[in-house]
Amino acid sequence: MEERILEILKDVQPLYEFEEGINFVEEGYLDSLDVVTLIGRLEEAYGIAISALEFIPENFVSLQAICALVNKSDKV
Q1: In the chain, fewer beta carbons within 10 Å around the N or the C end?
Q2: pTM beyond 0.70
Q3: What is the rounded distance in angstroms from the CA atom of residue 22 to the CA atom of residue 52?
Q4: For residue 68, is pLDDT > 90?
């Protein structure tokens, strides 16, 4: 799962290397438009629906946080 999400991240924002230990939001790797695009790509790739309540920065700070979000989202 991590490799696929990493590919999606690099597709959404190709200017950055999404490495461990970097907070994607605080470091400016992902802005609000990137997050909206990422959510759409994740929903499509995994057949899930991410609740609007989950659109919080904490869910997009790292690869592990994004994986956790995908795992807890409802399948459609």
Answers
A1: C
A2: yes
A3: 24
A4: yes
DSSP for 2-66 reads: HHHHHHHHHHH-TTS---TT--TTTTTSS-HHHHHHHHHHHHHHHTEE--GGG-SGGGGSSHHHH
- What CA–CA distance (Å, rounded) separates 11 from 56? 21
CATH class for the domain made up of 2-75: mainly alpha
Beta-bridged to residue 74, according to DSSP, are 49
Cα 58–Cα 2–Cα 4 angle in degrees, nearest 5: 115
Q: Looking only at Cα atoms, what is the longest distance across the chain?
A: 32
Give 7-47 pLDDT, tens digit per residue: 999 999 999 989 878 999 999 999 999 999 999 999 999 99
